[in-house]
Amino acid sequence: MSDYDDDDDHDMAPNYENMRGMGFICWREIPATDDEDHEDIQLNKKNKNKKKKRKLDAIETEQEIETPIKKVKKKKKKRSNETHMTSTLQIIGENNKDEVETTSNNDTIETAKKVWSDLHVSENIIRSLLEQKFFDPTPIQRLTLPAAIRDRLDIIGAAETGSGKTLAFAIPILTHMNQLLENNQTSYGQFTSLILTPTRELAVQIKSHIQIVCRYTKFKTAVVVGGMSTQKQERLLSQKPEIIVATPGRFWELLQENNEHIIDMSNLRFLAIDETDRMIEKGHFEELEKILNLIKNDNNQLRQKFVFSATLMLQSNIDNEKKKQKKKKDDNQDKLATLISAVGMSAKPKIIDLTKEFGTAETLTEARVNCSLEDKDSYLYYFLTLYPGRTLLFTNSIDCIKRLQSILTILKRNPLPLHAQMEQKQRLTNLEKFSNSDNGLLIATDVAARGLDIPNIKHIIHYQVPRSTELYIHRSGRTARVEREGLSIMFICPEELFLYRKIIKTLNRNEDLQTFPIDSTYLSNLKRRVRLASEISKLHHQVAKVANETNWYHKAAKELDIELDDNIRDVEKAKTANTKDTQKKEIQLRNELDLLLKHPLKYSSSLNISRSYPLLFGDPDQLASRRKNDMTALDELKHRS
Ligand SMILES: Nc1ncnc2c1ncn2[C@@H]1O[C@H](COP(=O)(O)OP(=O)(O)OP(=O)(O)O)[C@@H](O)[C@H]1O
C-alpha cells in the first residue's frame, strides 16, 4: 500500500534523466516554528479587539453556504499587526527597567488572556499561546473557537493561506480533550483525535504546532506517514498517543493490519481534515473514503468534525461559461458533498468562509516575468542573483527540479531539492536546512505547495505556471503569512500563457499581474554563465551515465559468474575513451565558468539606465551581504509603481 502525497510529477520541461540518489542524513522533525521576528506593537487592545470583534460578527452573520465568497476589494496595504508582539513576555521576565512599560505589558497579557478565555479556550492552552506571543486570535480562530468549543458544532472552515487554520481546529480539540479528562469521560492513552492531511511534511508540522499549544498538558501526539518504517510507527503507536496526525495511505495500512491502538475508534471524539480540497481530488480520495467509512460505522454522535482548507470554496468562483470548467466545478462540489457525508457531518455544521475574492493573502505582492522557454533559466538566475533572501521555487515536475538542481549547483547557488522521489529523511533534512538559511533556496514540486509554514520566506517563484488556480494560491501562500509581506513571481513562457490566463480569470482579476522589472544590462553576462552551467551539467550527466552502465555490466557479469563478451568490451573501451574527452571538456568549461563567476556582472554605463547596481559577484553569500542595503525585489516593484 503506498502512502499518497502531492507528487504529481508530469513534466512540462525538457526531459532530463534521473540523477543518482543523494545521501541520507538523519530523521529529524522540523523544529517548531517561532514568530521571532514579529513586529513589536504596543496597542490599546481593548478598543481594537472590540472593533475587530464587531467586524467579524458582521462577517459571521453574512456567511451562507450558497454565497460563500465575500466580495472584498484586495487592498495592498499593511495591516496593523496586533498579533505579533515579540518582546512582551521577555520584557516581563526581565528587570523592571521601565515600570510603565511593564505595567502596560502586563495589561497586554491580561487582555490577551481575557480574549482567549472569552473564546472558551482552556487555561493551560492559553498559557502556551501567550508564551508563543499569540496575543490575539486570527479571524478564522475568532470565528471558529466559540462555535467549536461552546456550541460543539462541526466546522467547515476556509480562510486564506497563513491565517492560522491549524490552531483553529487544534485549539478546540485540545480544549475539549482537557474537559473530557476533567470530567472523567476519557483517560490518557485513549486514541481520541485524528487529523488527516495530504502530505507528510504537513503532518509533521501540524504535530509540532499541536505540541507547542499542548505543552502544559500530558497529551501525546504521533505522526503516522509513509516514508517512515512501519515498525517505528507501530512502536510510536504502542505508546498510546491520544492524538494522531496522519496521511491517509499509511493510516489505512495500519488499520488493515489491525493495529491495536487505532483499530478501536470508539473513543475517537475528534476528526479533522486539513487541506480538504486536495484530499478530495482524483486519485487521493479512495483511502480517505475508506477510513471515513470505517470511522462512521459506530455512528458516534459525540464525535466532532473539522474540515478545513484555504481554497475549499474557490470552485464557486469558476466561470460557469466554460462547460469544461463547469464540469470540474460540479465534480468537485459533488466530491465535497460526498466528503461531508462521508465524514458524517451533523446536519447543520458551522460554515466559516473567510476566503477573499482574490484568493491570495492581502499582504502578498504578485508579479510575473515574461520570457521564452530557452531564457527561463537566465531570468531565474538573474532574479536569484540580484535578490537574495529565502526563496521557494516551484516546478511542475521532478525532472525539472533535477535539471535546475544541477545547473544552479554548478552556478554555486546551492539549491535544496524537495520532491516525492526523495527519501523522507532527506526531505525533512532539506526543509530544516532551508528554514535555517536566510538565503536558502528550496526547489520543490507541489509536494511543498500546501500548508508548509516556514518562517520568513521572501520570494515564491513559480518557475513553471501552476496547473491550477488552487495550486497557485497554495504555492503563493508559503509567503506573506500571518499578515507579513511577501512576493510571488510567475515565470511565464508563451507555451504557458493559456494556464496563466486561466488562473487570472478564475481569480477574478481584471488586470494582468504586474511585470517584474528586469535590467537587461545584466542579462548577456548572466546568460553566458547559465549557458556554460547547462553545458557542464549535460556533460557531467553523460559521464555519470556511462559510468553507471559500465558498472552495471560488470556487476551483472560478476553475479552471473560469466566473462564479458569481447564486443561488449570493445564498446566499453570506446565509451571510456569518449568519456575521457567529455570529462576534459567538462573541466575546461568549469574553469571558464569559475573565471566568469569571479568577475563582476558589469554595469554598462553606455546604456541609458535610470540607476545602477553595485558590481555584483557570483558568490551568493558575498552577494547577499553586498546587497543587504540595496533594493529588495518588493522595493523594486514599489519603486516602479
Ligand atoms: N493567533 C495567532 N497569532 C499569531 N500567530 C499565529 C496565531 N495562530 C497561528 N499563528 C501562526 O501563524 C502561522 C500560520 O498558521 P497556519 O500554518 O495554521 O496557517 P494556515 O491557515 O493553516 O495556512 P495554509 O493555508 O497555508 O496551510 C503559523 O506560524 C502559526 O504558528
Question: How would you explain this protein's 3D organization?
Answer:
With 641 residues, the protein is α/β, with parallel strands linked by helices. It has three domains: 112-314 and 331-353, P-loop containing nucleotide triphosphate hydrolases (Rossmann fold, 3-Layer(aba) Sandwich), CATH 3.40.50.300; 365-516, Rossmann fold (3-Layer(aba) Sandwich), CATH 3.40.50.300; 523-598. The chain has 22 helices and 14 strands. It has helices at residues 45-62, 88-93, 99-118, 123-131, 139-150, 165-182, 200-213, 230-238, 248-256, 260-263, 276-279, 285-296, 323-343, 376-386, 398-410, 424-436, 469-476, 497-506, 523-560, 566-598, 620-626, 633-640, and strands spanning 155-158, 193-196, 221-224, 243-246, 270-273, 304-309, 350-353, 364-370, 391-394, 415-418, 441-444, 459-462, 486-492, 514-515. Strands 3-4-2-5-6-1-7 form a seven-stranded parallel beta sheet. A seven-stranded parallel beta sheet has the order 10-11-9-12-13-8-14, sandwiched between helices. α3 packs across α4. Mean pLDDT is 77; it is low at 1-97, 315-326 and 603-626. Adenosine-5'-triphosphate (ATP) binds at residues 33, 35, 83, 134, 136-138, 141, 159, 161-167, 209, 310, 451, 453, 477, 481-482.
Please give the alpha-carbon distance between the first and last residues. 53 Å
CATH topology of the largest domain: Rossmann fold
CATH class value of the largest domain: Alpha Beta
**CATH architecture heading of the largest domain:** 3-Layer(aba) Sandwich
Question: Would you identify the CATH H-level superfamily of the largest domain?
Answer: P-loop containing nucleotide triphosphate hydrolases
Q: Quickly give the structural class.
A: alpha/beta
Indicate the overall shape.
Answer: globular
How many E strands?
Answer: 14
Portion of residues in beta strands equals 5-15%
What hetero molecules are bound to the protein chains? adenosine-5'-triphosphate
Count the DSSP helices.
22
Q: What radius of gyration results from the CA coordinates?
A: 27 Å
Identify the strand order in the major beta sheet. Answer: 3-4-2-5-6-1-7
| Helical residues, percent | 40-55%
